[in-house]
Each structure stands twice: as structure tokens, then as C-alpha cells.
Amino acid sequence: MPGTGCNIPVGWAAKAEESFSRWCAAGESTATDLELSTSPFRREKRPGLKAENRLVSVIEEVPVPGIAGGQQCSLEDYLQLPDHTMDARIAAAREKLGERVVVLGHHYQRDEVIRFADATGDSYKLSKVAAETRAEYIVFCGVHFMAESADLLGRVDADERPLQQVILPDLNAGCSMADMAEISQVEACWEALEAQGLAEGLIPLTYMNSSAAIKAFCGERGGLVCTSSNARQAFEWALAQGQRILFLPDQHLGRNTGFAMGFGLEEMPVWDPWALAGGLSRAESAKIVLWKGHCSVHQRFLPSQVDEMRAKYPGIQVIVHPECRWEVCQKADGVGSTERLIQLVEQGPAGTTFAIGTEIHLVNRLAKRFKAEGKKILTLDAAGCLCTTMYRISPQHLAWALESLVDGRVVNHIQVKERVKRWARVALDRMLELGA
Length: 436
Description:
- Helices cover about 40% and strands about 10% of the residues.
- By secondary structure, the protein is of the alpha/beta class.
- It folds into three domains: about 10-170 and about 390-405, Rossmann fold, CATH 3.40.50.10800; about 175-295, Rossmann fold (3-Layer(aba) Sandwich), CATH 3.40.50; about 300-380, Rossmann fold.
- It is globular.
């Protein structure tokens, strides 16, 4: 391919097509998957072509850089190419790597990527898969904190040396919520609460959506990690160990969980890391101190949107993620993690209309999956709420990561520093012992 410095191996297209066809026949993909657009808001079809012919045509239309001859192609070479040219290449690399690699895909990942995942789920489910897999390489199609957690939970040998390597296809796939709690800010908060005499009996808990440093902070001080699937169990565990909780970094998940347990809003003050003394003069009456952080996706859902949906669709079931505002959750018919939201749709009778307050890729996927059952799935926000950082991982990034492994190179290796790893692992292990 001119300008790339990479050669096209002879017979590559035919071999890649054959590999992709075998992969689809094994049940890993379907012809309808190939009709998905790169946009999360619409789908496009190329009329008059069967899936297999459509695949051949796109390979013939666009020449692609290869991995033969020991030449290395940079990520930029891949990003020049259309999404659909990556399918056969990903399948071919997957087949060549076999059980040495496992691909994990979060529910919010785009369809063009998640179709290649060996396991899909929310952060709790995927953390369990990461802890149990025997694969040599874990390619995590999620965001940075998820890849960190996979590294923390990875297998080690007798000398505590890692036996697995975790790869994040795009290092720019971060999490704005995780970035809202920086370790120096959390340490300053703890010192301030100590000065008020409140650190005694204070148990720090952090949501999975946090850095490894924050997880280590909690583990070292007797706390643990939780997800939206087991937040209540974590809160109950913490209050059995101490008198109050410092919850990081999502105020909404903390508030919704605490309220469901019977705590009043006045017992759950918010610590603002940018305000003097956290914006709190005294916190003696606090049972749960909430960190001022939020999810930029779920923050967008509003109580007025629930009212509008009920007015437009009488009898509609509104179900939302607990990262949504307390006011939204109070108006909803059901609140739960992404896994729980899927269960609620599965359990709903045929003909039910749902408005779901979570990321648009999962909503669109559920709409397609349950259409045949007569279930209508809508997004609570008509504009659609996209996790832009999760969306950064494209088929090109996945193909680059996998073909690099085929070529004997590990790119974007996520490795938590040893001084952080010990206590962060303790916090995660306590979560896994707690269960969902």
C-alpha cells in the first residue's frame, strides 16, 4: 500500500476471508453483524449483496497493509482504513493466536468491536473473567481502569511475576469519572477527616471506575472496591466493619445506594475536592461521605425526560443505571447495573416498551435483540448518550493490537506499578469474596 511502508502478503485476502467465514460459522458472528454502521445512532446496509459477497468486495476495494516479512505497521497505517476492512484481519489474527489471547468487551463498546469479544459484560463480570482466564494475553476493549483491574487480577507465578499481559487497544480510552478522584486529593480529604476526628471507624470504598492508586488507598485502609452490581453488599460490609463510609468517586451511585438502604440525604454530604475543607464545616452526623464525581454519560439523564416518556408512551417501563441522578432513579420503575438492566428487559412480557437510562450502544443492542419479541426499547435521552472514551477503541485499534501479537510484539501493555499493586489487589480480592 503506497505510503504505508507495509507489504500485502500474497493470498492474504483469500486466507483472511476463509478464516472469517469459519469464525462466523462457529457462531461467533452473524451476517447481520456486518450490517452495523460505525455510528451508534444508525445502521446502513449495502443492498444487493449477501454477507459473504459484501466481505469479499470490501477486501478487494481497499488494499490493506500486511504483517508478513517482519515489517511493522504503525497504528496510523490502520487508522487510514475503513472499519469494514478490519473484520477478516481480526478474525485471522484471532484464529492464529488461538487460546493464547482472550478479548473482553464492555457492554458500552461499539458493535463493530464487541462482536469479536470472547466475553461481554459490566465491569464486575469482566473482572471475574479476567481473574479466571488462563490466556497469556488479555485484550481489554473497555477503558483504562478496567485494563488496570485485569492486570491486578492476573495470574502470577511462585515468585509473583505476571504470567499474563493486559493490552488496551487505545491508551486514550479513559474514564472522566475516574479522573475526578486524584490520589493526592483523596489523601488530603482523609487527612482533613482525621483532623476532625472522623477517620476512626471510617471505611473507604471505591467504585470500580477509579485508578489503581485509589483502589490501593482503599485496600490499605481496610476498604474495598465495588461495582454497581454489588454496591449495596459493599456498603453493608463496610458498616459492619466501621461507623461510616467514604465513597469514591461517584456521588450518584453512593447516594442511590445509601438511600435504598434507608439513609437520609442529610446523612450523605458531598466532599468537594476543589472547595476549602471539602465544602464541609463538620461531618459528625455523616454516615456516608460522598466524593463529588459523576459519570458524564449518566449525568445527562434528567427527571423531566422520565416525565416526557411517560406522557408519550403510557405504561412505559423506565429503567436506569444507578450512576444516574437520585431524582431520576426515584422516578424510575427499576434501577440496576448494566447486567441488571438486561435482565429486566429479558424478564419483561412481550409487547413491553422500555425507556433505558444508560449508554446508547447497549440500548441499541437491546432494541435489536428483543425486537422479535415485540419489545420496544428506547433511550431515555432522545439525543442518545454516548460514552465517547469507550468509543475511541475502533476495529482498527483491535486489529493493530492482535496483529502485533501475531508479529511477536505487545503494544499498549497496561502494567500497574508494584508499589500500588499489592493493596489494590487486596481491595479487589475483597470485592470478589463479597460476590455480586
